[in-house]
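Two proteins were folded this term; both appear here.
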Amino acid sequence: MNIKNLSLIIVTSLILGFLYNFISPDGLALIRKEMKIEFVADSTFNESHTGFENDDIVIKGLNLRQTYDIHSKKLAVFIDSRDQWEYSESHIAGAINIPEFSFTPDDPEVTNLIKDEMYVIYCDGDDCDVSKRLAAELMKLGFTKVYVFLGGIFEWIDAGYPLEGDISK
């Protein structure tokens, strides 16, 4: 096979890949919108917010103390955005699992959620963006009380707070 044929195959593959991504409902955005993080003041818990500001996505972030307070008072539904295997190993007590990588708006876990309830989404921690991306997807669907616990499951575990799952693994 000569270099000309190989180049033609590569260019054709790239064009078909971009075309499929463009027309597919599950296509990936080639340019992601910037996500801004705003830490929430204790007095603004449970206030509605759109999650968008000047075409940017605004994520409302929670620290460990705020998250534990919300959890202990049962003020919100907790959503673990990690995959189902990580969720089954351990998760915040009472949390449901909606993996961000397989998120679809018509998923029964999503359609059963009430849009004006409070939700706290988490993943592994600061370096993990799946909770932020899931929060953005829920806000696009009209959920107005979506927060992200930025410390994630590892900070929760380090603090010794309640867990569920097969944590013996």
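Next, the second protein.
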Amino acid sequence: MKFLPLSVILGGVSSHHQQEIGVFGSARNKLTPAWRYRSSGVVWRVVPTVSGKLIGETRDVHNKLASFFCLNLRTGEVLWEDARFGEPWWIGIEAVHNDTLLLHKFATPELPEHRALIAIDVLTGSELWRNEGVRFDRLESEAIAVTRTQAFGGEQLRLDYRTGEVVDESQTAEVDRDTLVDAQPEIDLPSPRYELEGDNLTNTLLRQHCDMAKVVYPVDCLDLDTLLVCSIHETISASSDERPCMMNTLLVVDKGTGDLRFREVINKQAWAVVPDAFLVWEGMLIYVHERAKLTAMDLHEQ
């Protein structure tokens, strides 16, 4: 499928990080992306926030550099990008709490245990605080539960998530769950399916729109009210070591009519089945095209 771009470069967006409003060449596509964002590296992870922002972690594998960006989820507007926070590679997203991003480091490159916390303001990309001597445990409504990494017996603390100051020290601190849901966005994630042979609606619809002889399992599916969203890997060739090369395609199907609303090849050459290739936040489908182009589409579009 060919993509016919109508590119629009918005103010504040650099030339190599452009937003594209796209129209697809296939007449079968009834939905079109609302925006696209091309990252400077491989999109490693994305996390929505309750205020409608999208935090992204990218990796420049060749130069061993990790960086972070933040977009307006509805419009694709870039709030900040290419941000680094001291550690060039051994760093990643730990959690997002309201509009505070928490990053972690690693104990050692050989040991993937998380250590340290760096708090970033989501709206500005500026560092709020860091603590090298703790390990993240969990989020609570107004605090972060952590454990001192150098304390005998694993001393537990609660830190204010905006300031990093200690608000409570307790070996047996109870979890405050009453308002935690308010700090976390509601995200719909796909579930894996390991066969499409049954007679249920999902399997029937998918058999109409994919080549069953080429499907590699599992197939990621998200069953919404009126739509079915799926990420499908299909074998296109086998290499000399018999490892299959696959094509990863994203499908959006109307459950009522069985019509294909949207189809796009999101990875032309995949060597492994990639789980969780998309998510849905408040009706916005978020996925990555060819590993570096983040894409959003309003599923309510008619």
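The radius of gyration is 21 Å. The chain has a mean pLDDT of 85. These notes refer to the second protein only.
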